[in-house]
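Ticket #4471: structure export looks truncated?
Reporter: QA, pipeline team
Priority: medium

Steps to reproduce: submit the single chain below to the structure queue and open the exported record.
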Amino acid sequence: MVSDAGDGPGGRAVDPGDRADAPGDRPDAAAPGTGSPLVDRWTALDRGWQALALGLGVVAAHAAAQAAGRF
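Actual output as written to the record:
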């Protein structure tokens, strides 16, 4: 039996050269060694993890503002 682990969305095979978030292939990727470890770690994350972290930050800020009586 053939493994489906290499299949991408829609059942098509994933081409290793066809990865949008491959390191260095992103148009918004910072140059290596920006001088800030935080910036380097942030740009090393793929877009899904960046979106999750940003969303959780927004939710946390909103919850803190609600607790302080701002909203």
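Status: closed, not a bug. The export was complete when the record was re-opened. Leaving a note from the reviewer for reference: The radius of gyration is 18 Å.
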